[in-house]
Design brief:
This protein has 432 residues and is α/β, with parallel strands linked by helices. Helices cover 37% and strands 15% of the residues. Pfam families: NinF (PF05810), PALP (PF00291).
Length: 432
Amino acid sequence: MTATLTSTTETAYFTHLKCKECGAEYEPQAIHVCEYCFGPLEVKYDLERLAAAVTRSTIEAGPKSIWRYRPFLPVTSAEPIDVGTGMTPLIKAQRLARRLGLKHLYIKNDAVNMPTLSFKDRVVSVALTRARELGFTTVSCASTGNLANSTAAIAAHAGLDCCVFIPADLEAGKVLGTLIYGPTVMAVEGNYDQVNRLCSEVANTHGWGFVNINLRPYYSEGSKTLGYEVIEQLGWQLPDHIVAPLASGSLFTKIYKGFREFVAVGLVADKPVRCSGAQAVGCSPIAQAYAEGRDFVAPVKPNTIAKSIAIGNPADGVYALEIARKTNGAIAAATDEEIVAGIKLLAETEGIFTETAGGTTIAVLKKLVESGKIDPEEVTVVYITGNGLKTQEAVQNDIGQPLRIEPKLASFERALERSRTLERLDWQPVLV
């Protein structure tokens, strides 16, 4: 255990790392696991100093990015890596709400987050800023796709060398969306959990900064901004209920941590927030533990189209379980068919094209409403974490095809009549 903790600078409010299991404290270096009990480490802050220094006005005067919340993030840099990440739209989803029978439904749309169209841009911006502060010149990650995109893009912007590791069967859009930034890409013949184990060995032997391994305590803090932004965008109020996807469980726990931090420093009035999580049936270790009343998560072998959340051995699964239970939330899972239907439902009602993780979240939202686990009067926020253009394979056989016509008015009229007859169902590629 490290007895002497690093002093905070004039502009930094994080103080140390603390084990979530045994409470051992460490200096804020590139470590992520407790040397005594192997528990995960988490960043701690001086909340009294934060409460004295930060107001709603100082936040609102900040940049239109996650860095408006810089005092709540574990960096010391006066100029963090800012590529315009964050402050994504919070949309009142009136048409989807009517379809589901809800009155106050909002979509937090990170499908349009910058620069790579997923929430991972938040965590990577924080991790690479901290990596630079700690002296790393090469950064890396184990990824199911979105994280590889973000790490490669933001490393390119920051001038850092980059090597990413992905499962070899990843969607083509996510592979291309990584290669374009010029990193070294290792496509591993195995699932994400096998990729992650390999990366732990590489991190120990090459001394690189792995955003979701030795930099994980800093990286994960970026997800808190999804909680901060929702509070600010709701007019400095907490929602009643949130629904978010569960992969490792980190995103879910950090949104909750963000809510509690803003309450602790007096930026928002306290009230109960119910936290519900979504998994795919083909990789649902946390949902299974929730359904069976277990307080541990048994690893599973993933088999689902929702590859971005297909983590069979989730590092923060038990903490996600704990939050869902203590907030009176729920955790449920959706089949691949329900995930595709969820993607289409969100697109057709709100004009948002999400990837499979978002389809999972919408499908589970629908299930929770139908089972009476979401009150129609609750202010409910659903987190959409990635863009559908990256996972087109998941829906390409379920969305019909265009009506092919000749460049003549008569051909158009025949096609229009045909489309109305078919009511956009079972379209076939025919020349009219």
